[in-house]
């Protein structure tokens, strides 16, 4: 799949964001914990969520429309063919372990943005009394009954925090997770678990206390809006010097991006839960460091780099979360961006003009960043391997077209 982008006029009008992919994946996994029916609304229709459903069906979960019925889950072994396609599949480890006493999960796939170890997940499972084994590329976790324990995460890993919370909600006794991730997706998972009957304190902070309960029950939940999808569209308005509105946004989740855009000269405001953006003036460079929430999100690093590539002045981006999240830089350089790399830091000298080129999406957000650059590059930009973009954005081209972007999918 390829995406073709032509230089576009400033975007205008509105774009609506979907439910969050990264909140939907752990919440879908958490439906396995209750052994009943859960109704989840606003799950985005994406390759990752479709693959997650496929894995869950293989485990015995019945899924129809928004309804997830895990009463008949029988298998503890997730199939490699699906698991390798998405990182989020490892979030099935905790629910299977907590509910069925065993989880056999092949090492997960996902974007090639770093080595992405799972040591923090495994250390945490051990602390809760699980036996951890690894062989032939599969992680095998076993327990009779998980027991509450104390866990200190070396880094506030989103996935490890989510897995360990899910493991602890059905464990015997109290679990304390320190240096936990506070991302909105972790909060959404906790709110879903609380609706199921879990007892969790400290939600949204870095210390989470969980009192295990004997069982959970089915419930209903609406997935939070996708802050990264929304952030990408906000940046699309900004890079084209456009003016418009992004709908279905939790404005408080956009604070780190909004603060940087304001610093760069873009006007942003809130209207009834919509995010308004007016980027018709000059845009100036800025220095950005990615950090765990509420810091600037690593998932917006590539897109903001595209914006800095055409801003006035020289800016700097330091990536502190993933060690190899710079695969888009070489491609942006092909389009005329002036970027120097030094370890985890990129120095971006804004240029007056980018030129369209044949480029390759190496990962999800890097691919989206190339599309943003294509909107302001002279001529035509052809992005190959654009399936990466489809992993995280529902109807990406259609939504951008709705705001006036000259962008389309070319199926080979
Ligand atoms: C999630 C998001 C991803 C986002 C990231 C950080 C999903 C499906 N993906 O990924 O889009 O970019 O959070 O906001 O929700 N680490 C370890 N050991 C571990 C786990 C993580 O060293 O056991 C390291 C990672 O290599 C990385 C850092 O911790 O350098 C952050 O990773 P983590 O927060 O776990 O990201 P994910 O949950 O994989």
Q: How would the blueprint of this fold be written?
A:
Elements lengths: L1 E5 L5 E5 L4 H10 L6 E5 L5 H13 L2 E3 L2 E3 L10 H4 L9 H8 L1 E5 L12 H9 L3 E5 L2 E5 L7 E3 L5 H11 L5 E5 L5 H13 L2 E3 L5 E5 L8 E3 L4 H13 L3 E5 L7 H9 L3 E5 L2 E5 L8 E3 L11 H9 L4 E5 L8 H8 L3 E5 L2 E5 L4 E2 L2 E3 L3 H13 E2 L1 E5 L2 H4 L5 H7 L3 E5 L2
Parallel strand pairs: 2-14, 3-13, 9-10, 17-18, 21-23, 22-24
Antiparallel strand pairs: 1-24, 1-25, 3-5, 4-5, 6-8, 7-8, 10-12, 11-12, 14-16, 15-16, 18-20, 19-20
Bound molecules: uridine-diphosphate-N-acetylglucosamine (UD1).
Uridine-diphosphate-N-acetylglucosamine (UD1) binds next to helix 1, helix 5 and helix 6.
Structural write-up:
The protein is an alpha/beta fold and 412 residues long. The chain folds into 2 domains: 203 residues, Alpha-beta prism (UDP-n-acetylglucosamine1-carboxyvinyl-transferase, Chain); 202 residues, Alpha-beta prism (UDP-n-acetylglucosamine1-carboxyvinyl-transferase, Chain), CATH 3.65.10. It is 32% helix and 25% strand. The strands form 7 sheets. Strands 22-24-1-25 form a 4-stranded mixed β-sheet. A hairpin with a 5-residue loop joins strand 11 and strand 12. It is elongated. It binds uridine-diphosphate-N-acetylglucosamine. The site of uridine-diphosphate-N-acetylglucosamine has 21 residues, from helix 1, helix 5 and helix 6.
């Amino acid at each position: 799949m390829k995406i073709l982008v032509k230089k576009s006029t400033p975007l205008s009008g509105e774009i609506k964001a979907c439910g969050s992919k990264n909140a939907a994946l752990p919440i879908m996994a958490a439906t396995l914990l209750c052994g009943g029916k859960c109704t989840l609304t606003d799950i985005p229709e994406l390759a990752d969520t479709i693959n997650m459903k496929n894995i869950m069906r293989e485990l015995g979960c019945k899924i129809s429309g928004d309804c997830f019925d895990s009463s008949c889950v029988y298998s503890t072994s997730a199939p490699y063919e699906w698991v390798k396609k998405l990182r989020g599949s490892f979030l099935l480890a905790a629910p299977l372990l907590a509910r069925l006493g065993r989880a056999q999960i092949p090492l997960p796939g996902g974007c090639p943005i770093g080595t992405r170890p799972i040591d923090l997940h495994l250390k945490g499972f051990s602390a809760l009394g699980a036996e951890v084994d690894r062989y032939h590329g599969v992680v095998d976790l076993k327990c009779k009954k998980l027991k509450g324990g104390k866990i200190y995460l070396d880094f506030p890993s989103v996935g490890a925090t989510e897995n360990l919370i899910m493991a602890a909600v059905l464990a015997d006794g109290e679990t304390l997770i320190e240096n936990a991730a506070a991302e909105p997706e972790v909060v959404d998972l906790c709110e879903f678990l609380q609706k199921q009957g879990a007892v969790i304190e400290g939600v949204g902070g870095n210390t989470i206390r969980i009192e295990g309960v004997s069982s959970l029950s089915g419930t209903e939940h609406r997935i939070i809006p996708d802050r990264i999808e929304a952030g990408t569209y906000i940046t699309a308005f900004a890079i084209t010097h456009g003016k418009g509105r992004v709908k279905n946004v939790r404005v408080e989740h956009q604070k780190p991006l909004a603060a940087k855009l304001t610093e760069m000269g873009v006007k942003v405001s809130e209207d009834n839960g919509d995010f308004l953006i007016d980027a018709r003036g000059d845009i100036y460079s800025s220095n950005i460091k990615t950090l765990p929430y509420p810091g600037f999100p690593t998932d917006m690093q590539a897109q903001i780099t595209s914006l800095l590539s055409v801003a006035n002045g020289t800016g700097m981006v330091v990536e502190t979360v993933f060690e190899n999240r710079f695969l888009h830089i070489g491609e942006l350089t092909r389009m005329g961006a002036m970027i120097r790399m030094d370890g985890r830091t990129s120095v971006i000298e804004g240029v007056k003009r980018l030129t369209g080129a044949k480029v390759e999406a190496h990962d999800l957000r890097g691919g989206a960043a190339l599309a943003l650059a294509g909107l302001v590059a002279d001529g035509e930009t052809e992005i190959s391997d654009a399936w990466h973009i489809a992993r995280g954005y529902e109807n990406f081209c259609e939504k951008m077209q709705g705001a006036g972007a000259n962008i389309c999918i070319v199926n080979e």
